[in-house]
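Appendix B. Raw example, untouched.
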Amino acid sequence: MAGTITYDTDGGNFLAGIDGNTWAREFWISGLTSGVSVSAPNIPNLISEAFVLVPDTGTAAPSPILNMFVRSAGFDRFWCEDEATPTWGASGVINYATPTRAGGAFVGSVPDSNGPGITLATSSAVQEIDLYYDVLGAQLTTTNDNVTQAHRAVGFAVVASHTFTRLEDAHPEGRINTYTGKLNSALWNGYAAKSMLCANIDVRSDDGENWVVTYTFEYKPPAQWQATFIHDDPFYPGNPIPLSEADPGALLVADVLDTVDFGPLNIVFPS
């Protein structure tokens, strides 16, 4: 088998659909030699050989087309290039579309892996937080008249949001139930255990067979996902009980979110 594919025979320009959601790309193929003769060309063999050179359905479109994929490809004609060999040529068009565009089944995505159709957006912000411990982990306290009480101070933490989108060929109901509202139980994508929350898994589909799935992860330092409970002083409501009277103290820090291994998601953030 042989053959060479050349794209953009119209001068290098992609042809955009009127709605902006479809693109077309012309191609030419030369040097096809599979089971052909000048007098009786074997068209099925020619088509099979030529299709090997054409991107598969589901392949991501090249620049400048973003977030679109090969929807279909077809040939408009075949011709004999060299009767002595013989070799044949072909021409056709590749059609790109958004993964949810209506009209025909869209296949070719690879679920549970990084492949065509993946986008990753990250944002971060500095957020005010309540502090009950200093940077060394020592409890913040104040002492007046030999009575020590827990103390709350205002601090700051960096909070980051990661949105990860990919095309999958099955509805991720199992992932929604397993991961939403859970923290990572182990180191994941460079983030420490219990620091990344799977905040949301959004799913959409136009054909019920192919799914655009967006995973949203929220990062905070592990301590910021914990809840701190203050034991009120029964004699002074609204004030923490003195540490000298509390057992084990005026503050109780507890994990309130379950954890799960994020590894099976097969999501890798670009380094």
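End of appendix B.
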